[in-house]
Amino acid sequence: MNSGRFDMGSIDVAWCPGCGNFAILNTLKAALEEIGITPTKLVMVSGIGQAAKIPHYMKCNVFNGLHGRALPAATAIKAVNPGLTVIAESGDGDMYGEGGNHFLHAIRRNPDITNIVHNNMVYGLTKGQASPTSRRGFVTPVQVRGVSEEPFNPLAVAIAQKATFVARGFAGDQERLKELLVRAVSHRGYALVDILQPCVSFNKLNTFAWFREHTVSLPSSHDPTDPVEAFRRAMEDDPLPLGVFYEETGRPIFEETLGLYERSDLPLFRRERNMAELQRLVDGKTGR
Amino acid sequence: MNSGRFDMGSIDVAWCPGCGNFAILNTLKAALEEIGITPTKLVMVSGIGQAAKIPHYMKCNVFNGLHGRALPAATAIKAVNPGLTVIAESGDGDMYGEGGNHFLHAIRRNPDITNIVHNNMVYGLTKGQASPTSRRGFVTPVQVRGVSEEPFNPLAVAIAQKATFVARGFAGDQERLKELLVRAVSHRGYALVDILQPCVSFNKLNTFAWFREHTVSLPSSHDPTDPVEAFRRAMEDDPLPLGVFYEETGRPIFEETLGLYERSDLPLFRRERNMAELQRLVDGKTGR
Amino acid sequence: MSQGGIVRFEDELTLTLCGEAGHGIQSVELLATALLKDSGRYVFSTKEFMSRIRGGSNSTTIRVASRPVDASLYRIDILIPFDRAALDHVRRRLSPETVIFADEDTLTGKEIPGNPVTIPMPFRKTAEELGNVLYTNMVASGFIAGLFSIDEKTLAARVRGMFTGERSSLADVNVEAARKGSESARRLVGAGGIAVEIPGDPAVHDYISINGAEAVGLGALAGGCDFVSSYPMSPSTAVLVFMAEKADQFGVIVEQAEDEISAANMVIGAWYAGARAMVTTSGGGFALMEETVGLAGMLESPLVVHLAQRPGPATGLPTRTEQGDLNLALYSGHGEFPRILLAPGTPLDAIELTQKAFSLADLYQIPVFVLTDQYFIDSSWTIPAPRFGENAPRLRIVETKGDYRRYRLTDEGISPRGVPGWGEGLVVVDSDEHDEEGHITENHGVRVDMVDKRLAKYAAVRQDAQAPELYGPEDYDTLIISWGSTGPIVREALRRIRRPGTSLLHFRQVYPLHPKTPEYLGKARRRVMVEGNATAQFERLLRAETGYGARDRILKYDGLQFTVDELVQKFEELDESEVGK
Amino acid sequence: MSQGGIVRFEDELTLTLCGEAGHGIQSVELLATALLKDSGRYVFSTKEFMSRIRGGSNSTTIRVASRPVDASLYRIDILIPFDRAALDHVRRRLSPETVIFADEDTLTGKEIPGNPVTIPMPFRKTAEELGNVLYTNMVASGFIAGLFSIDEKTLAARVRGMFTGERSSLADVNVEAARKGSESARRLVGAGGIAVEIPGDPAVHDYISINGAEAVGLGALAGGCDFVSSYPMSPSTAVLVFMAEKADQFGVIVEQAEDEISAANMVIGAWYAGARAMVTTSGGGFALMEETVGLAGMLESPLVVHLAQRPGPATGLPTRTEQGDLNLALYSGHGEFPRILLAPGTPLDAIELTQKAFSLADLYQIPVFVLTDQYFIDSSWTIPAPRFGENAPRLRIVETKGDYRRYRLTDEGISPRGVPGWGEGLVVVDSDEHDEEGHITENHGVRVDMVDKRLAKYAAVRQDAQAPELYGPEDYDTLIISWGSTGPIVREALRRIRRPGTSLLHFRQVYPLHPKTPEYLGKARRRVMVEGNATAQFERLLRAETGYGARDRILKYDGLQFTVDELVQKFEELDESEVGK
Ligand SMILES: Cc1ncc(C[n+]2csc(CCOP(=O)(O)OP(=O)(O)O)c2C)c(N)n1
Ligand SMILES: Cc1ncc(C[n+]2csc(CCOP(=O)(O)OP(=O)(O)O)c2C)c(N)n1
Ligand code: SF4
Ligand code: SF4
Ligand SMILES: [Mg+2]
Ligand SMILES: [Mg+2]
After folding, report:
1. Ligand showing the shortest atom-to-Cα distance for residue A95
2. Which residue from C271, C396, C516, D535 has the highest number of Cβ atoms inside 10 Å of its Cβ?
3. What is the pTM of this model?
């Protein structure tokens, strides 16, 4: 997979050998290539963390912002230039911890962006503290008594917020992951793909083997248009179902609701302020 | 209702005549009195907004903190002194907008606090902008084209996060509201009571009459121990069901998981640092 | 001004209305200022109000004059209180020169401090007779029109204009209420009880009424602003509302974010993709944006922040005024990078500086702040209609080539900015330290180059700074120093004291300081700071930057703005206490 | 130090290890420093590493001496690189005096800059022979032990101590690896190729090895800290981890919050209810807490912030060092209220000042900052075991009476603090401006009283300030000025240059300044700032507060800390270039 249009050639990748992130990177590049996206029209938006370094390893436009803040930036970028393909991609700590509030509210806006989360159930870059998705009992240097909180359930919350596309993938199953990513990026509206990703350095609990044992495909009978069914599946936590939990088409997207692109589809940087109109506005306020 | 133990006597209340907040204030005072809470043992924690002024109108300990930040403060107060009854109470903008991330994660900790939200579907104190729960089409000076986002569904999100007590009340039905509040405050663990509250000054859409028409009691057949059923009900949005959607008992509470109260139930302010132990710690690091 | 029974106003008068929130004082202000402007008078009005929707006591002060006015007085010439609590609320401003018009029952009972002239006037009573106490404000508006001999046709037309669409059925009764008010005033004037002889100026027909929020908003539109994301917070929300109102007409994306952090990050994302974006916020809300200010610093992203100050710490006094966020803005964000702080004192300043904020942010790729405050945002002026010129501002971006490097090192520190999707290049920006391409790096040499590159911009930014404005003689020995919204007030106070050798140095740009600043400061034998805060924040900045502090400080931090007469008194006290030292 | 074939170290030597992240350099450091301390040597070690978990090139420098050392050198005496990239990574620090021990293949191929002595040593090869390349670091540790003639029993015991519980099966092979390393070193020493004659000092047996994070943590424990809430962020996380480790033993609540805002608000809530609470954070994370710092200001809540600085802006260089957050902390939060900034330079400082931070915060009911940085947190010293005394710190709270008023006005501005549930009173705190009871108010007079009350605390806070420490003669003409973590480095550099008339003024408290500061500064004819940032932030503060700036600035902002020899050179350059001016 080292010849695609998104490849950077031989660069120094800061991930650990054997990390699940490599599979996600390769699968994403393949999926984007399959859809036919052009690198200059792609913007990868990320926060901070190991997962969040992914944009640097792809040939594309990059907005590597603050920890937890990828979604507001991505939403705005898409609104300002709807011709771009915008992917907001980061880790579980970034998106569901620091960025939790943006996760909640970005979904409500339904911008036409894809939200990919590398869910390794741990804070990788900061060396192994619990993340919101860490399972009960996970012991770390900070959670010395083991995690006691209920793990954050991104799929259930997204469904509760009526996200228009909600899926879970696994880095260890690249074939199906690619399928999910193709569908997610092609989806018109906000699409969440939570990807189970083994962290070989800091998560000795949720390993490749563990994930293989504790995941299962959603049955083909699953109806992704039924939110209650989707929720029921999302609440199952052992095994964790994989696939598209929920999908809704036809909901207006954020960019549309702005009213700005009704008369013209020019991105903002191609537009000009109507100064005559502005002059009329103030002149209208005089006594003349 | 002006003689109870939580009454402040004749004070200047900054709410508008006719506001739903008055009913909530009176009902809460009555509920607390019924449970037998003592004012000196009660801490009311709030953020900023019209609803958030409620602690000032009650005779009790008050922590009126920052906009959106009641839950972290409340969680900590309870952890530091579990003998106190702690209620975090604020508006919908405060709890679900600015404070959304804390809402998500406070639930996961399951502290033994009550979270009461005055849901008037609008930002009252800042004069009528949309709140996260504003319904589609709601026109305001900022949402000039009407709200286009999917409204935030606090109950569904709380159920998705396995909050241990999730209920919805209505300020216009004080009798049942009192019942809910008594149950919520008595519940051991995190309890959410979202209260539909008409704002007579800025929400001309969701008035007392509107709420009366668009709410219905949960059927007595509703099983509050079934999360999927609870979710199904929480997704119903016209009419909006009232009552206890979900309740789970027996889950460990945050204060318990800290390990601090296993040997002693003294609050922190009654404890002392063991200096001899500290000296032993460093002495153990010498070569002696 | 009261001479033997008859109260006469020749050049100007100051009229204050007060009453509960939600009782329509604001409508009286709007209607009265419009009518007064129609009649050729110059009007300045300002208000102070509580953080509540109903009840309490608020007041609006309208200063009417035959020549331009841009500041207000503490003194009240005419007071119209709508209830007794309101009257007590402004009691300190009353004197035997004050005339109070009010319903009988408001004037009776408790004694009124200051020994003012009281004239019963049936505002509420008339309203009740017309069927609703809510018409009181309309009766009062008519009364004011009558005092200024504004003809009833004009009055009726303006009132009718307020009741259109759904509310048109209410027009007739409101016109009648206004007419009744006007009638009472005319009767009083006719009887010689009061004479208002403030002549109108035909030039005012080409003037507009404008408040601070509108001025900032117009400046933003003129600057090309096409993206605003914010979270509501008094007093900054007024600018958000203005932009929302104009969004469709001018093609602006206006989004209310879930919190301030989101708002600020949206704005950075928007600039990245080619918008000209702004946040409007206040103290505590801005505090939440600090990490994002640092992001702008590292990304070299343009950023415009309208920061409307209010008293802190924390929630403080949400609807009051202060110049307390200078330090906050100046040192916001972690790490070291350039920034610009502008502080308008007049609506024309606000239009010009906000417009300029966009071009400076765009040119230098740095954060630019427009510092206003509640006083400024909520006050209203009569000013000549601004002229915007025909040329729309141009965004300084380049079409990228295949080898585009976002952070190409240049002598002045500015790298041509591309946007994603325009050209063959890739636009890579990173909040980590990065190389010229924008990719993450830990190379120590590159780090130093990049810090130097970012800070190098200061050279040009300083040269480009707004010069401080000197009022008064060049050969001053005493220099009064002010910044931002207090400017016009200090200016008028200075004119009034006419003390030789005293000048005012007023700053519309507070950071970086114009290179001539030390010269100005050094020439003075004595420097006097006037600031709306408790610790003289701008003085501290001057001291750190120029070595010159001030011997005297006139500071105000009670939540209200200075007034002209109050400052005159302070200046005079100052002189006495320090003579010969 | 190399004399005719034999390399001899008499008083001290500086040994650097370098290699990829995840290859165990840190274990070597831990083991080697423990062994060296066991043998009576004084050890100072420091590291620099990349923001990645595996790969890249990191290095650790261990300075071993026969007398106390507390700063590091740029110069490397002995280098042990684990791969060629690592060797290149430190190439600028090599000279003909450097001896490199490395596997043959690391030394061959490309030429090695600096012309060092190279001695092949089969670290990796030995490890591979033992079955796993991962034992390389153990072979190297043994080698170091051998160089210092540490006996094999002690070595074996220490190694065994590292492999207990689940890992005990690995003990034997690791002991063997260490033994083999030791053997090679002894062979070399025996052959007279190298002589390490750094005598041990028996006093060191009563010393402890401690790093900056532990020192801050111990200080917190000694200060009574019983609540920590934070969000992980390098380099501050180390303190969070330390506190988590000790939580059960000392009864501390340690909670990882969902974000920094939550962490900070938990801490304020905790103080309110009677805890002694702290956040530990770094630049960007702290930027998110600024609104909450303002909350502490308004609530008059105690607050302790450990702020471990790293280079910004934004994400910057996450694992590097800088003194760049002084302004950020100094002006954090909106509104005007007192605060204290402490900046330890040694572990004893950190213990003492962090302990003190709790009592100051508690006494004055204000935010107190402990400013460290990545260098300080990650460096390790040999110091005498601190003595804590027997008296546990007492929380300054009162049992409330029925008429308790949280914000009772007092002369010094301090009101007795109650906690909810203790006594008959109610404890009411409010982020809005409030009256003495704590209830929201908009009264302008009360506002002014409350601002004055809060600021009045500065009088006592200033009197209570830590005096700056003067090193060198009292009658200096040149004054070098430093603060925080650079102190020991500057001190040693100054000792080395022995320039008459030159002293060092080092600040452990950077705000407010001790009242004697202007006197110290004023006495100098020439002032030289040494700061780890690009804009001389502390100099700016000195100028604003005292009027005295510095003529010369030695600034470093490449992400690394100053070293002694680097500073010596800078001081000497300075002297030459400025002589006679
Ligand atoms: C405001 C802020 N807080 C904290 C950090 C430190 N930090 C960097 S990455 C990270 C968490 C990484 O976890 P995750 O998002 O799950 O990504 P992963 O490394 O596991 O891929 C944290 C806490 C930061 N950079 N910024
Ligand atoms: C950090 C911050 N941002 C914004 C505000 C301004 N503000 C005060 S209350 C409020 C919203 C109030 O809405 P809600 O929480 O629904 O309460 P309500 O007034 O409707 O009861 C806002 C935005 C603030 N005080 N602090
Ligand atoms: S720390 Fe974990 S997530 Fe990060 S690169 Fe290594 S294995 Fe992957
Ligand atoms: S503004 Fe609305 S919520 Fe606030 S007091 Fe008035 S009616 Fe109630
Ligand atoms: Mg992770
Ligand atoms: Mg509300």
Report:
1. 1
2. C271
3. 0.97
